[in-house]
Design brief:
This protein is mainly β. The protein has 3 domains: about 5-310, Glycosyl hydrolase domain, family 43 (Tachylectin-2, Chain A, 5 Propeller), CATH 2.115.10.20; about 340-470, Trefoil (Acidic Fibroblast Growth Factor, subunit A) (Trefoil), CATH 2.80.10.50; about 480-565, Immunoglobulin-like. Helices cover about 5% and strands about 45% of the residues. The chain has 3 helices and 39 strands. Strands 32-31-30-29-26-25-22-33 form an 8-stranded antiparallel β-sheet, with no helix packed on it. Strands 34, 35, 36, 37, 38 and 39 form a 6-stranded antiparallel β-sheet that branches. Strand 38 (about 550-560) and strand 39 form a beta hairpin. The longest helix has 11 residues, at about 5-15.
Amino acid sequence: MESKGLESFVNLTRVVRNAAICAVLGLGAVVGSVSFAANPLTTDFYSADAAALVHNDSLFIFAGHDEQGPQGNNNKSFIMNDWHVLVTDDMEHYHDYGAVLSVKTFKWANASAFAGHCEYRNGKFYWYVAVHHGTIKENGSEGFAIGVAVADHPSGPWKDAIGQALITDNTPNDVKLNIDPAIFYDGDDIWMYWGSWNAGRRVKLKENMIELASTPEDIKIKDFFEAPWMHYFRGNYYFSYASGYPSTTNYSMAPSLNGPWTQKGVINDKMDNSETNHQAIFKYLGHWYFMYHGANSPGGWTYRRSVNIDYLYYDRDGLIQKIKHTDGVDPVNNALLEEGGYRLTVSHSNLALEDREGMVVQQTADEKNEAQLWILERGDSARYYTLQNFKTKKYYCPPKTLLDTVRTSEKTCVIRIENASAKKGYFLFADYDSDYLGDVLNISKDVGMPVITWVRTGTDNQKVQFAKAELPKVKPPMDSIPPDSGNGKTTGIPRGSAGALNAQTMKKIRYDADSRMIRLERETRWTLLDVNGVVVRRGYGREIQVRSVRSGMYFVRTDRATAKVLVR
């Protein structure tokens, strides 16, 4: 399947629900199937050692494939010959592309499709995997090597990127078990981590992703066993890994990628009926997730595992909280919110968000209360918006300081809004990178309680439902609406003077057709009206973004003038 068709395919499968109907609809040959949200993610095959990659608002899961038989009969070994790729855009429906990569892809390998990690770089996808080398094996080792496959899209076709292994037993300062590769970007530096049997390594890669740029070095983590994974959050580096055997998942923190590392303990306990623990930690659509494998599919055991996903949370100090195993995470909707009028309701209390004397509080919902109406407009990048109160004309402006109350401001405030739950609404982030968002104080259901800034905990008092609302039509005084001069250019008319054009005002209010932006002389309150005098938007600032406004004649009213603008 072509890359550009991925999102449309996933959306179609959400409607038709199964591969057979897809074929009937003329979508062509469909490989794999569509699974539905629950833990484990799929029972169509036994899966393990999964890695995650977020690309173009889709989540790709690169998973190993356990093929061992039922428990007993001395079946005490891993049988793994290929890898699968799954994709979702809503954390509910997963499409399996099938076994898109196998040991046979690497002619120099002869067995064991162990854990891998895929990253996107230079317009290509690079998948680093561990396999048994066909000829290179040192005494005391198992002969594992790390290869690199490359493709234009996660669904393949995949090919050996270099025709030989990237890491083998002949690599200087390698380990006896060269498995579990994981890639991490640190600015312009590209690092690969790997290792097992209590020995871990890292090495810098060249920009081409297929050559080493340094000599492997010790990761210097004391309780490391295998399954390295690196991520960055709120000024700290997090190194998570399997510890001991049977394994728990532990983590360490450091202010720098070079340490010093402080051990923080266990975040995922030993798994029932599965000796291994292998994690991936990633952020997708406003949530942090923890992906791992267990033996929770029918017939599952140590050598027949299945991939699961649960939420990952940090506390106010950035420490990772213990993972809670559940039946699955909530479905989300990654479609962008439409601009327009909304009523905002807090999910836990069903109370409406209201601008009350410059503070955002929850109040009993009242459709006649215009202070509970909010105008949503998109910002300059996806998932960033402004929320302006219809009555007070002020903007929802959350502080980035924890426990501070959310207030409204005459100045424009851009916030990140992400879907928290398809049923329960959205997160309103004060600081997306730090996971700080709006939270009703003390999880209270009392009216008048303010919204504060707090860390994301996933509770319903942090989820806000957006219900479309018809905004009242406000007509300006007739003498403030100038007649059309018919010249098709930006013109300015002083308020109260509906006669001739004023050249001085024309210089102060101008329309930039290239950026679809109306530019004002200075920061001021403004109102955008259509030709019938109906208010389209209100705001404060020097620029009025009209990318989403239909072409046609509009009027811009400020405290000094009203100008006619032809939006093209």
